[in-house]
């Protein structure tokens, strides 16, 4: 099942224009999709860059600005110490801050649905992970 998901994720990344040598930024908590993204990048010879979910907005803005990744993979939220913590909201703030300082915005943000709650959305940039994988 994991390998099937990795094949589908690799196909989705390829449809988004990821090629050998491209960087894919992964901003996920410890979830299966993190492993799937790693395997998918390996299948495409893309470079998986980890953006820890513990990074602050300024740190995340700096890293995303430096990377210029074609695709960012994140989660809507995560469970930590019994509480739901935002993940995508932090990334959204970092991307907005990066744009304000002249950074190249991510072309696509794939969002893993972890929590049943509203999530901010940027049309044309944000896509659900599961929908992108279902297209293959």
From TrEMBL:
One of its GO terms (molecular function) is acetate-CoA ligase activity. GO terms for cellular component: cytosol. Keywords: Acetylation. Transmembrane segments: none annotated. GO terms for biological process: acetyl-CoA biosynthetic process. SUPFAM superfamilies: Acetyl-CoA synthetase-like. Gene3D superfamilies: N-terminal domain of ligase-like. This is Acetyl-CoA synthetase. It comes from Streptomyces natalensis ATCC 27448.
């Amino acid at each position: 099942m994991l390998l099937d998901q990795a094949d589908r994720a690799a196909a989705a990344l390829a449809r988004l224009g990821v090629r050998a040598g491209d960087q894919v930024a992964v901003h996920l908590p410890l979830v299966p999709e993190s492993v799937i993204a790693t395997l998918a990048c390996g299948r495409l010879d893309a470079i998986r860059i980890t953006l820890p979910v513990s990074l602050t907005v300024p740190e995340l803005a700096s890293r995303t600005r430096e990377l210029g990744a074609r695709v960012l993979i994140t989660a809507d939220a995560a469970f930590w110490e019994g509480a739901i913590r935002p993940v995508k909201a932090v990334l959204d703030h970092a991307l907005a801050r990066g744009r304000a300082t002249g950074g190249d915005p991510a072309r696509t943000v794939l969002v893993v649905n972890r929590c049943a709650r509203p999530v901010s959305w940027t049309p044309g940039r944000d896509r659900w992970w599961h929908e992108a994988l279902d297209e293959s």
